[in-house]
Amino acid sequence: MRRLTGNLTVELEDVNTGAVEAVAETNMVTNAVNNILGMNPMGLFYKSSGEYDDQLIWNEEMLPICPNMLGGILLFSDAVTEDADNIYLSSANLPVAYASNDVNATANVKRGSMNLTESMALTNGYKFVWEFTPSQGNGTIAAVGITSKQGGANAYGSDVAVKTAFLEIRKNTLDLGVGWLNTLFRAVEVDFEKGKLYSIAYASNTVTISTYRIPVFDIGLNEKLDDTTLTLEDATVLNCGTFQFYGSYTPYGIFFDGKDGYWYGFSNQANSSGDATMLWIRIKKDDFSFTEGSWTLSNAALKAVGSFREESSYPDTQRNAVLRSGYLYVLGYGNNGVYKINVNNQADVTFISFGFTSAAKSIGGSGSCESRLAIIRDLIIGYDFVIDVNDKVTKTFGGTRYGTLATPLFEYKGFLLGWGGSYGNEYRYNYLLTPYLATISNLSQAVVKNADKTMKITYTLTEEEET
């Protein structure tokens, strides 16, 4: 077994006086690389289905490990808990600066450049050197971590670049009947450890919760590694007195995993002004007991939270809302903000203004499946903005981030899974969330980078055999 050690030096030079401020630290190594190379959820690294399925070419994209899987750097304004499983931080501590394994040719002032002359492979490791000009990477720096080259290029988004945090590992063509597609596209939760998929459907004043066995880390004697292998284990039908999906041709409604022991369903029709009416249902996961009701939201102009229509050959879906920490976030009708609604108190409604008018396009492109809001851990992502856990809105460059998803992205240790498609071309998508922390180095004293200073970061990783 090999053990990695790392040494970090941060040098700030005042361009006016020539004075140099330097901080040297060691680092700890997280489980990021071991997770990526040591796990194979749903056999995604095996070529197990369609001949023309897309698969990541690992050489050059991620290998050699340096400077690819480890090829970028993230700088944080707050200290980072030193834990091997602390691979993705809360959005309360988003990177203040970053850099990849190349020269920054964009106008992104948060991003620095790798010194391609001084950075090099060593006999027992790799020496990284990154540089930031006076206008780049300004802010307080309290912690530093190595990430992937993709994560260091754009982190979770900037206002000048469209590079995505989602690295596509696999894209499987779904050769399934529309019934199976509806089941997959209605998935609301995947329990990777237990190998369970939960799919929730509404029809005719009933809500049906279906539990399926899905091979994740083990495979049965009669199972295959594709999405035809779903074994129904339980189906529970709830008869609703109030909750329903509004609409006839297009049923307006969507279900969410509250991550609090409950699933939630919401339904409304878009309204351009006045009050909004929303129907809701809350289902306890343990025993499927439920409560339901109706809200009248004063002076709330909302888009429909979502919709699900069963076409003859493909499902037609839309998502305009996410659920985070007990609050439903719904895009406003005018595309200039989101409404934040307490799922336990309809009077607790806040409008969070973007400060601009969003294009409000689908993050996954246009088609029969569209997703205008997504949530990764505690970060809400839109087409041209992100909203952190403190509800701070940051404008980003508008662009698609992933495929035409019908479902949320289900996460397991940085691996992301979702189903979707467009007009008869349906897929299972697997991504890697790339702005991970492969190392953590807290500075003994935070430093401040400003427009009077350049910054040079030297990070040396070495490996040795453990006895």
Write structural notes for this entry.
The structure is a single chain. This protein is mainly beta. Helices cover 6% and strands 45% of the residues. The protein contains 5 helices and 35 strands. Strands 1, 2, 7, 8, 9 and 35 form a 6-stranded antiparallel beta sheet that branches. Strands 3-34-10-5-6 form a 5-stranded antiparallel beta sheet. A 5-stranded antiparallel beta sheet has the order 4-11-33-32-31. A hairpin with a 2-residue loop joins strand 31 and strand 32. The longest helix is centred in the middle third of the chain and has 8 residues. It is globular. The mean pLDDT is 95.
> What is the percent of helical residues?
under 10%
Separation, N- and C-terminal Cα atoms: 8 Å
Principal-axis shape: globular
Report the sheet-strand fraction.
over 45%
Averaged pLDDT: 95
Q: Report the sheet with the most strands, covering strand number, pairing sense and barrel closure.
A: 6 strands, antiparallel
Tally the helices: what do you get?
Answer: 5
Got a strand count?
A: 35
Give the low-pLDDT segments. Answer: none
What is the CA-based Rg, rounded? Answer: 24 Å
Give the helix/strand class. mainly beta
